[in-house]
Prior knowledge:
The protein is of the alpha/beta class and 491 residues long. The protein has 15 helices and 20 strands. It has helices at residues 7-14, 18-26, 39-45, 55-67, 70-73, 80-119, 125-142, 150-161, 182-188, 226-230, 336-342, 380-392, 414-423, 437-451, 466-478, and strands at residues 4-6, 36-38, 164-168, 173-175, 206-211, 214-216, 233-235, 239-241, 245-248, 261-274, 277-283, 297-303, 308-314, 324-330, 351-358, 371-376, 399-405, 427-433, 459-464, 486-490.
Amino acid sequence: MAQLLTVSRAAHLIGVTRASLQKKIGEGELPSFDGMISSEDLTRLFPDVRLEDTGAFERITKIKEESFGRRVRERVLPNQAILAQRLAAQSEELEDVRRHLAHYHDLIEALRERIDFMAGDAPSEQLLTLANFLDSGLAGVLGSDEPIDTVAVMDDMLRVVSPHVTVKPSGREFFIEGSETVLQAALRSGLAPSYGCGNGNCGLCKARVVSGKLRQTHPGDYPLSANERAQGYALLCSHTAVSDIVVEMLEANSPDDIPEQHVVVKVKSATPLDAGVMLLHLQTPRTNRLRFLAGQSVTLGVSGSSADFRAEYPLASCPCDDRNLLFHIRNADGDDFASRLFAGAVKSGDAVSVWGPWGDFVLRKDSTRPLVFVICDTGFAPMKSLIEHALAIDATDTMVMVWAATRADGHYLANQCRAWAEALDDFRYFPLVAADGPAAGTAAVASVIANIPNLADFDVYVAGAAAFTETAVKALRAAGVVDPYLSSIAC
Ligand code: FES
C-alpha cells in the first residue's frame, strides 16, 4: 500500500529541494492530499529514484555545510548509543505492526471457520459469496507479487539516521542529522526557536514533545519540575530525537521577538579579503551565544587606552552557527573601530563586546517568491547571511544576485558567488563595476531590469552604502517594485 509522506520528507528521500516539489504540486504534476504526497505518485514522477541518487540534494547540502560552522559539519551519522536507541524505537514500531497483523490474521481465520460452521451441508448463496470473497482476498495477500515500495523502504531507513521533526503550531518541519540536538537541527534548518545558552542552563529552549521519543545528549543544570517532565517538556538544546517527533516550540516571528543581548566574545581571526575589506571572525563563549535573524546587524565595541570604539555592522554569517560570528569590515573614513582593526590593534584572542541584534532587514516571513539581491561593495555581508538562510529553509529555487563594486577588484568573495551559481539550478550572479555609489545603484538596477522580465514577482533586497541604496531603491520603485516586496539596508 502506498505510504503518505510530507513534502519535506519526500524531498529529503529523493534528493531534491522542497521548493521544487512544491512547484510540481502547484503545476499539477504531483498530487497532494492535505499537504501529503503518496510514495506511489513520487515513484511515478521519479521512476529512477535510488537511495544514492541524491545529486541535487548533495550539492545544496555541501553549500549549506560550507557555510555553516564546524560544529554543524561534524555531524554525519549518529553515535552508537543514539543509533541503538533509534533502531530500538523502530523495532518496537515494527513489533507493534506484527502483533496487529497476527491478530487480524487470526480473526480472518476464525471468521472463515465460523462461515464453514454456519454453512453446514447446505450453504446459502450469501455465505458462499462471503466465503469466496475471503478466500480470494487471502490468496491475493499471501501470493502477492506487488513490487516493494522503494520509497517506503528508504523512508524507514532514513528515519534511523535522520528523524523528522514537526513543529507546532507553525507546522514547520526539519530533520535531525546524526547526533545533533533538536535545537541544533532547528537552527541549521533556518528556524528561529527560542533559546539562550545552548547548553542546558537557562531553560529558554524548554518545549513540550507531543509525540515521539527523545534522548539526552548531555546533562544540563536547568531543573525541570516533575510536573513539566510528566507533561513531556524537555530542553531541546540537550536532547536529540530517537524517533520522528512532534514538538510545541516557541519561534521568533519577527525581529521584535529576539531579545537584545550583550555578549563578550573573543576575536578568532582578522583576515584581509582584499586591500580594503577585512573578514573579522568572532567567537562567543559556549554558554552565551548570540541569537539573531539572518540579515540583522550588531554593535561591536573594543576598549582603547583612552576611549571605547564602537560601530554597527551587519552579520555576514548564518544564525545556524550562533557561536561563530562573521563580519566584512571596510576601512571607511570616520570608522574608528575599522581603523583599529586595519591597524592591527584588534587581534586574535582580544575581547570584543557585541550588543544587539538590530534591524528588520530579514527575509519576508513565509514568502516563497523568487528572490533578487541588489548589492554594492560590503553590502554583500548581510546578503550572504540572507542567502544562506534562504538555502537553509528552501525558500525558493530562483535567486538572482547583482553585485556592483566601486573598485575593479571589489568582488571580494566572487568565488563564493560563482560556487552558488554553479551548484544551484536557478541561481544567477551578475557582477559589475561602477565609479561610485549612485552610479552603482543605477547600473545594478539596470542589470536587474534587463535580466528579470517578471520583476514584480520577486522579493527584492538592496544592501550597500547609503548613496547606493537611495539610488537603487528609487530606480526599483520607478520600475514598479512596491512594498512590502522591497527591503533595503544602508551599511
Ligand atoms: S538554550 Fe539554555 S537551556 Fe537550552
